Amino acid sequence: MGGSERTPAQSAKDLGSELYANGDYAAAENAFTEALSLATQVDRSELHIFHSNRCAARMQLANVDGALQDAKKCTELAPRWAKGWSRLGACQAQKGRYSAAEASFRTALSLDPGNETYRAQLSNARAQMRPPESPGGGRGEPPRRSWADRAWAVARAAAVQRWWAGLTGDQRGLLAAGAAVAVLFVAYEVYNSLFGHAFYGDPFYDSLADYGGRWTWSFWILVLIGGWKLPPMFGYPPFFGMSLVHFVWLLQMLQNSSAPRRRYSAPGLYRRRYW
User: Fold this and answer.
1) Which residues face 139 on adjacent strands?
2) Structure pTM?
3) What is the DSSP letter of 139?
4) Domain 8-129 falls in which CATH fold?
5) DSSP 40-69
6) How many Cβ atoms from other residues are within 10 Å of residue 226's Cβ?
């Protein structure tokens, strides 16, 4: 085997690293798992890296227990590798085991004294271990809420990512269309509340004021032009994938269904009525 040729396990690890860099943590975890299953004696020297990488992916997916197992295995395989101890400390901190995390970070820093990341991790772990001063001067409970909130946020983000990855192209298009409708509706309401005014005695009151003001059609014309010109700049097809007829029909539907009718109670004053 040539020196530059990659083994199947190493190729799987490379794929996992690429997926991780792209934010696809679930697929990255699967790739690192495959790398471990394909590993042979040739890959023995890299097993701790495979476990370390899978640990990182699992942490992003809020699978702290699985990440902790990988971190422990990593430190068993390579006890002199500082990064493995850093991974282990991060997992222990997420579990609320701050004393163990402090010891792991201390080990990582002793193996790599110049690493500022490990130094910061050690300081954070020690801060979590130190009870804060209470208003009366006593000691309070360790501030564990921040770690719990962070774990919850990571878990929610991972769940949303898995949900989005499971959608088909048509489902994503439908969601994008729904979001576009919502944005257009909100934009219409904001515009109408700011500029949709008619004045007492205005000869255009009957024909224009009932539909939100004389500038409404100008606004929708701008939206129509924007729908044609702007989306391709953001990677979307013109009109968000809709035909011109359907797009105009959508604007007309929003115009007729959401526009307020106005009646005056006194000169210069009006009240909004919805039918």
Assistant:
1) 133
2) 0.50
3) B
4) 1.25.40
5) -GGGGGGHHHHHHHHHHHHHHTT-HHHHHH
6) 10
